[in-house]
Each structure stands twice: as C-alpha cells, then as structure tokens.
Amino acid sequence: MADARSVGKIDRAFGSENRARLLAGFLDGCGPITADSAWIHVYELLLWIDRTTGLAHCYESDKCQPGRPWYARSLAFHDWLCDELGVAPHELATRIDWLFRTATRDIAGLTRADQMAAARAQREPYENRDFPLPGEDPEMVDIVREILGDYLTGEPGDERWQALTERITAHLFQENKRKNLLGEGFEDTLAAIIRRLPGASEMEVANRTLLADIPGFHAQGGVEKLKRVDVALWDADGERRILVTSKWSVRADREEQFGTDFDAYVRVNSGRMFDYVLVTNEFDAARLLAACERLSGNAPLFTSVVHVNPTGVLAAYGDDRRGAATRLDHLIETGRLTSLEQWLTTTFPT
User: Fold this and answer.
1) How far apart are CA 205 and CA 191, in angstroms?
2) Whole-model pTM?
3) Cβ contacts of residue 338 below 8 Å, gap of 6+?
4) Which among 112, 118, 154 has a CA at the least distance from the CA of 135?
C-alpha cells in the first residue's frame, strides 16, 4: 500500500486542478474545437481499454467476457471506432484514455523508497513480529511462478518478488482512481470543450456549480441538500438556461436521481423554463430508451437525451436487435436520442 504522502500525490494527480491543467494542454493542441470533432475528443480523453477483453470499454466488464453477447458487441464497437479514428485495432489503446494515462504518468515517479519512507517509522514498534510488508502477496507470486516459471532463467529473490507485487498493487490502486476521474472528468471535459466552441463565449459555462448561483433560481431551503449541477450554461440575462446532468453510464440509482434533481430544480425556479439535458455514453439500449421516455407529468423529463456518438451504439448492436434495441433507429431518427455533435450544433449555431 502507498503511504499517506504517496496517496496525497495520487489524489492531486487525479484532482480537479490537475484535470483542468491537463485538459487545457490537450485541447489547446487540437486546433479549433468544433461540434463535429467534440465526440472524438471525448473518446480520446476518457474512453479506455477494458484490460480483461483488450477492447474499448462500452459496457460492464463482467458482461463483456468472451462467449457472452456483449463481447461480440464490444468487438463491433472497437472495430467501428478504429475505422472512425483511422487506427489499427491493436493501436487504439494509444489513441484513447489520454487523461487517465497522463495523470498516471504524473505519479510514475513515486518510487518504492518514496512509498516506504513513512511506513518504516510506523512499522518500527513491530519490527520483531515478522509483519507482512506492504504489497506482499504470496498468492500472486505463486500465480506468476506457475505461469512463467519455465521461462525464468533463475529464481528471483524475495526482494524482486516483493517489488513485482508492489508494482502490480500500485497499478491496481491507480486503476481504481479511474472511477473518480471518469465522474468529474466527464463533466470537466464537456465544459472544457463547450467553452472552446464558436459562439460559446456568449454563454457562461460552469461545472459543479450550486443551483442558487445560476440566474433564475432561488436559494434552496436550509434542510435541503444543496444541489450542484454537473454542467450549467446560461446567457447574460438568464433567459436561456441549460442544466446538464452528465453520466458516462446510467445505473438504476442514477435513474432515480434524475427525477429528484429535476423536482428540486423546479421548486426553486423563478424564471422561465429551463432545458434539462442528459449527456451520456451509455450503451444499454433499455437504459437509453428509459431515459428518452422518462416523463415528468405529461412531458418528457429531459429536453434532450444526448449520446457521445449514438452511431457507435448502432454499430455495437449491429443487425441482431431484440427488445429495446429494435427502437434505437427510431429514437435517433426522431431526434429523441441525439448525438453530442447535433446537440452542440443546435445549442451554438454558427
């Protein structure tokens, strides 16, 4: 395990300040940001390779394992994306996941000595008790020895096995940070892209802003949990307001949150009606359909349901459609499920 100082360095590497710095550096090097290139930048920055399948992640890992239906869909999505980006299938990993890979490189300088420095003093009272070392994992060593033993020219010493297990443990620890990076990182990425679009300078763009700080909304009651909007856009007079909930995937708990958030927004709204928009990269057709058909009263809950690129969803499902997947084309054709490109073009017409 990493010591407290190492954990602090890792947290800062994945924190909002460093994300903003990294996003600015990446997007500044992309030339003019346009609506039609926005989805590419989102995938370049945030999409990743599922290490258990070697394919671009589009659904829960346990459901995408070889032999299961989502493995075929993952293959199809991976193939489609490679064609879109003009890279070979085995090269896609180098084109995507830039934000996580770069943040990880920022902490690559954390050496074993750095990690163990504070731990030595903490372990000193127990030095004669033969406590296990941080990252020590005999079962992992046995697995590696079983798989690679015949290829080793000699038996590595205990120190080398310890270094190996520490490196693997540190890697897994960092990989767990992806969840945090993906949540707020998606919000940051959308806001950073929007701010660079032609015409966006006419609107204020804020992420994770308090609802009461957006024009046309009263302060919430004292006992009510204060709402922060993932991404909020409004013009100078507050006549046009867009509240975006950005969720990379849509789980059941998030589906419930959509309604409660909207109810809270309506309760404190003092201006004209606002747009309530979902931006997602969900690939489950049933979840997308549910979001598109979700009602508040007798009207759609969401003004727009926006997918990073719904063509990728169609590519994943292919021609073998059942259940909710049979309705994907209709949702897209009618505009109920729209692409990030289409939504940005409509929001910021040039």
Assistant:
1) 7
2) 0.85
3) 304, 305, 306, 307, 310, 332
4) 112
Q: Kind and range of the H or E element at 229?
A: strand 228-235
CA distances from 112 to 1, 109, 170 (A): 10, 9, 10
**pLDDT surpassing 60 at residue 16:** yes
CA angle (43 as vertex; 341, 349 as ends), nearest 5: 15
User: How far is it, in rounded angstroms, from Cα 318 to Cα 65?
Assistant: 18
**Distance (Å, whole) CA 141 – CA 134:** 14
Q: Give every CB contact of residue 8 below 8 A, 6+ residues apart in sequence.
A: none
Rounded CA gap, 30 and 113, in Å? 38
Residue 187, H or E segment: helix 178-195
187, 231 Cβ separation under 8 angstroms: yes
Our CA dihedral for 63, 69, 74, 79, rounded to 10 degrees, sits at: 170
C-alpha 14 chain-centroid distance: 12
What is the helix (H) or strand (E) element at residue 190, kind and residue range? helix 178-195
Helix and strand totals (H; E) in the chain: 14, 10
Tracing tokens 């991976």 back to the chain, one arrives at 78
In this prediction, residue 246 carries a pLDDT of 97
Cβ–Cβ under 8 Å, residues 77 and 283: yes
For residue range 208-257, list pLDDT tens digits in order.
Answer: 999 999 999 999 887 788 999 999 999 988 889 999 999 999 988 788 89
